[in-house]
TrEMBL record:
Keywords from the UniProt entry: Antiport, Ion transport, Membrane, Potassium, Potassium transport, Transmembrane, Transmembrane helix, Transport
Record membrane topology: Multi-pass membrane protein
Protein name as catalogued: Cation:proton antiporter
Organism expressing this protein natively: Altererythrobacter arenosus
Positions of transmembrane segments: 12-29, 36-55, 75-93, 102-122, 128-150, 162-186, 198-219, 231-249, 309-331, 343-365, 371-388
Top-level taxon of the source organism: Bacteria
Annotated InterPro entries: Cation/H_exchanger_TM, Na+/solute_symporter_sf, NAD(P)-bd_dom_sf, RCK_N
Length: 586
């Protein structure tokens, strides 16, 4: 028919991907299985080694297969960039600085020890030392794209995994440059290129930090004034893509720029809106990445070399899990945390594929060797969610947790966010007055400790999903925030106030300045711990040195009134806030 328009291969591939997402996510969610496995299986099925092989025999299969696997790679890379960007949004520069010992201590030890040990084993098996070194460090990497969505960044397992993965992401560029310099015909330009990249990249990072702090608040404030979600999305994409291109232009990994962009936006008041807008894009782009992983698995090659491939997978997983778990134990981690993190971090990474390609192009390893380890890596990525479950099972075995009888959740109860020292004290007071409560925390070790001590506690991330809904927040008499993370507490208060305007929200504040921020965010009461502890110390010392109790109590009330006035003034409030949670005090 004249004028008929045939669908382009790109549109056909987009239809396959969106159709896969529409099938994988609801089906696997229904059976409580991570969609990671589903996307990889879809990649195997629709890739060049699956149904793609039959397209010439059955042309109609072209409509349900990926016609251009290489064309998906930019979208897969974009998915990883968005993942690191959202991780940056969840962090802060202060928290990153607090993790420096883990990043450059645990992260460096993990990568160096595993890389050199695997290189030594491969060298003894006949691989030339340069190729063995390349393979050893390639296999030492773990998957940022799969591990962090599983572990999160708040729990002990998440923090340990994040620190190791951050160091690995930093080391990608130096390792690739060193491999290039080790090539049989490499000249000194490889080392010079590394030095140039480091100083130029350092300048770009400093420029991003300075310009970001100045420009980003103004950019997002302007976008917010328009009340246009489209403009907010455009501004977010502009920032993350611009920062990624800036670091990539100097030779650094684009994910470094994405992480910095996320950290900078996390310091602004618009981080929650940006995180919500970017979440769907991150999930879809990450799904594309997982599909590309599946498309790289040739089932016929796997079957022909099944014994060797499975043996290599098992040996790599067991060795990496053992070394990582041992390092964590030596650095003071609990047995359960060390075991779960070690197993979760055992599989290779999407970065492994990059390093293998660099080693192959530098002629350090043969193409057949590279293909073998690419298949091992793809299988490792596929089973990472299963490793996560295995790690949790092992963690419970090495450090059992007594289970309390579950309540039916029908009775209204106070929700305590945070099961640490302060959260447990709040729970003690509820038990003393026969008031029902439940504590929620994203720290698995903290929940395990609380349960061992007899508290009603459950694992969950109060800032995400329907965790609070499951605990009955609609009927809860109050929510108490006890975590010692000022930025997270402020975000959560703001979110709770928007979703539940009448809810009683009591929040722990670090000091009076933080209390003022919490009141502005919507807290019913904010309790500055530094103020109350200082007043109690003053009361104790004054009474013990002979001052009468009455004047001491009067002076403490007077000092508390002064801070009320300060909070009212600094918080721009039209009422005088309370500094205690009691309703008795005016």
């Amino acid at each position: 028919m004249a004028g008929e328009i045939a669908p382009s291969p790109m549109l056909s591939d987009a239809l396959v991907i969106l159709g896969a997402a529409g099938i994988v996510i609801p089906v696997f969610t229904r059976f409580r299985i991570t969609p990671v496995i589903g996307f990889i299986l879809i990649g195997i099925a629709v890739g060049p080694y699956g149904l793609g092989k039959l397209v010439f025999e059955y042309p109609w299969l072209a409509h349900i297969t990926i016609s251009d696997p290489d064309g998906l790679e930019p979208f897969a890379e974009f998915g990883i960039i968005l993942l690191l960007f959202t991780i940056g949004l969840e962090l802060s520069f202060n928290r990153l600085w607090q993790m420096r010992r883990l990043v450059f201590g645990l992260g460096a030890l993990e990568l160096i020890i595993i890389g050199i040990a695997l290189a030594a084993v491969l060298s003894m098996m006949g691989q030339y030392w340069t190729g063995a070194l390349a393979l050893g460090f390639a296999l030492a990497f773990s998957s940022t794209a799969i591990v962090l969505p599983i572990s999160g960044t708040q729990s002990p397992v998440g923090r340990a995994a994040l620190s190791m993965l951050l160091f690995e992401d930093i080391m990608i560029v130096p390792i690739v440059f060193v491999l290039g310099a080790m090539a049989p015909y490499a000249q000194s330009e490889g080392w010079e290129g590394l030095v140039d990249t480091l100083w130029q990249g350092g300048l770009v990072v400093v420029a991003l930090l300075v310009l970001g702090r100045i420009a980003l608040p103004r950019l997002f404030a302007q976008a917010a004034r328009t009340k246009s979600p489209e403009l907010f999305l455009a501004a977010s994409l502009l920032v993350v893509i611009g920062a990624s291109l800036a670091t990539a232009a100097t030779g650094l990994s684009p994910i470094v720029g994405a992480l910095i962009a996320g950290l900078l936006i996390a310091e602004t008041e618009y981080h929650g809106e940006v995180e919500g807008i970017m979440e769907p894009f991150k999930g879809l782009a990450l799904g594309i990445f997982l599909i590309t992983v599946g498309m790289s698995i040739d089932l016929m090659t796997v079957w022909a070399n099944l014994g060797m491939i499975l043996g290599a997978v098992v040996l790599v997983l067991v060795f990496k899990a053992s070394v990582t778990g041992l390092l964590l134990r030596l650095m003071g981690a609990r047995r359960s945390t060390a075991a779960e993190t070690g197993v979760l971090m055992a599989s290779p990474s999407e970065t492994t594929l990059i390093v293998l390609a660099a080693a192959s192009s530098a002629m350090l390893i043969q193409p057949g060797t590279a293909q073998f380890w690419q298949i091992v890596t793809a299988i490792g990525l596929t089973i990472t969610p299963l490793l996560a479950r295995l790690g949790r099972v092992i963690a419970r075995r090495v450090e059992p947790v007594p289970e309390l009888p579950e309540d039916d959740g029908t009775e209204p109860r106070t929700i305590i966010i945070g099961a640490g020292r302060v959260g447990r004290l709040v729970a003690d007071m509820h038990k003393a007055h026969n008031r029902p409560y439940v504590a929620i925390d994203f720290d698995a070790d903290m929940i395990a400790k609380a349960k061992r001590l007899g508290y009603r506690a459950t694992f969950g991330d109060a800032a995400r999903g329907d965790a609070l809904t499951r605990l009955g927040i609609e009927s809860a008499p109050a929510v108490v925030l006890t975590m010692d993370e000022p930025v997270l507490a402020q975000r959560l208060v703001s979110k709770l106030r928007k979703e539940h305007p009448e809810l009683l929200i009591v929040a722990r504040a670090r000091d009076t300045n933080h209390a003022a921020e919490l009141y502005r965010a919507g807290a019913s009461h904010a309790v500055p711990e530094t103020l109350e502890s200082s007043l109690q110390l003053s009361e104790a010392v004054l009474v013990d040195i002979g001052v009468a109790m009455g004047p001491v109590i009067a002076s403490i009330h007077e000092k508390r009134d002064e801070f009320r006035e300060q909070l009212e003034r600094e918080g721009h409030l039209d009422y005088r806030p309370k500094l205690r949670t009691s309703n008795v005090e005016a």
